[in-house]
Write a sequence for this structure.
């Protein structure tokens, strides 16, 4: 049996045939148990008085215990004739019962196998639909769904789960395609700048001061490309999940990052306010350091001179709020996608590649947490990261 339908047919058909055989045996046993006594009781009144068996003298057995036997006394010869007739009639009746039961069982078995084959096909039809759809799946038709119309049950649940899996795969493929397109675009820009600086700026024997300017420009572009590649690598590592876990004090990490970015905050004339309370979490200390660093660095770079950055760490998680340009609330969820920016790109030094919040969200997911953001009414963002804490 090479198919599930054949196996189910054998199982269902075998059970039905076995049930039929057991029922036939039970009926035969119950009928044969009282058949001879019943026939004898019915035949005895019809035997004439003084009847005898000519083939021999029959001994007179004890009369049967029945209602009729208790109301009428039989002669020995009369009883022997009744017994002989009832035995013959009982054997004939049982033989007929066996014949009819055997034919009925054969017909019942054939119908049971046919019914089992039909039932197995009905039961396995959704599985066949799922299999056929899975074979046809490709990158061009991931939008198709089973949408199985069936009563609630295991197969309906399987089909709905398959549709949910297709939803997640479609979202993942679309996100990967956008990521690849955005990464190619972001990498093409610095390469174009470097090529233009080399071909145009260094043509026709430029003076030393122009060569120095072009050199600085190429160095700045190379630094930006390195930051972009490092961000892409960090995003890929965090998407893979955690390779190690240890107890990390997120409050201590936030304090260290704030101290490291103090010089940049002073250079931008931005006030940093920190409210830190103990918050132990379990995770990768390097990734968590990048998470806090990206949040604080984004809050500093997407700000204005004289603005503020507020950092809060406590039982509710990590929260970083900043002043800055007004952000459309409808675009806030999109900022967690790679290469998304609240403002148009200006190609300014230290602007970043648009990976900051996407890396934050990826690291938070890797730690079993969640990152969210809201637009501040006066401008800027408030980003919250909630991570599972350890005792």
């Amino acid at each position: 049996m090479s198919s599930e339908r054949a196996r189910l047919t054998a199982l269902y058909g075998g059970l039905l045939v076995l049930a039929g055989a057991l029922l036939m045996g039970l009926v035969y046993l119950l009928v044969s148990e009282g058949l001879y006594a019943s026939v004898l009781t019915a035949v005895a009144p019809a035997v004439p008085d003084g009847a005898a068996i000519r083939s021999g003298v029959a001994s007179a057995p004890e009369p049967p215990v029945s209602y009729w036997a208790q109301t009428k006394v039989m002669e020995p010869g009369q009883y022997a004739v009744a017994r002989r007739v009832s035995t013959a009639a009982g054997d004939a009746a049982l033989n007929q019962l066996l014949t009819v039961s055997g034919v009925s069982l054969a017909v019942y078995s054939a119908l049971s196998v046919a019914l089992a084959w039909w039932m197995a096909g009905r039961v396995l039809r959704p599985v066949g639909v799922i299999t056929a759809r899975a074979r046809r799946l490709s990158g061009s038709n991931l939008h198709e769904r089973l949408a199985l119309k069936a009563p609630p049950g295991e197969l309906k649940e399987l089909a709905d789960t398959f549709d949910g899996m297709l939803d997640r795969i479609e979202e993942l493929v679309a996100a990967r395609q956008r990521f690849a397109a955005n990464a190619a675009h972001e990498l093409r820009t610095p390469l174009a700048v470097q090529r233009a600086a080399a071909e145009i700026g260094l043509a026709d024997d430029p003076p030393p001061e122009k060569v120095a300017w072009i050199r600085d420009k190429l160095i700045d572009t190379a630094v930006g490309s390195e930051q972009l590649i490092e961000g892409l690598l960090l995003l890929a590592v965090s998407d893979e999940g955690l390779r190690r876990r240890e107890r990390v004090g997120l409050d201590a990490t936030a304090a260290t990052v704030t101290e490291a970015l103090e010089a940049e905050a002073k250079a931008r004339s931005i006030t940093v306010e920190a409210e830190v309370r103990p918050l132990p979490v379990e995770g990768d200390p390097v990734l968590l350091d990048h998470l806090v660093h990206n949040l604080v660095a984004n809050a500093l770079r997407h700000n204005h001179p004289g603005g503020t950055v507020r950092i809060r760490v406590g039982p509710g998680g990590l929260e970083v709020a900043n002043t800055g340009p007004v952000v459309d609330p409808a675009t806030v969820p999109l900022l967690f996608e790679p290469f998304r920016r609240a403002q148009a790109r200006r190609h300014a030094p230290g602007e970043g590649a648009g990976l900051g919040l996407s890396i934050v969200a990826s690291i938070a997911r890797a730690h079993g947490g969640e990152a969210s953001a809201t637009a501040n009414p006066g401008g800027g963002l408030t980003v919250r990261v909630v991570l599972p804490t350890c005792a």
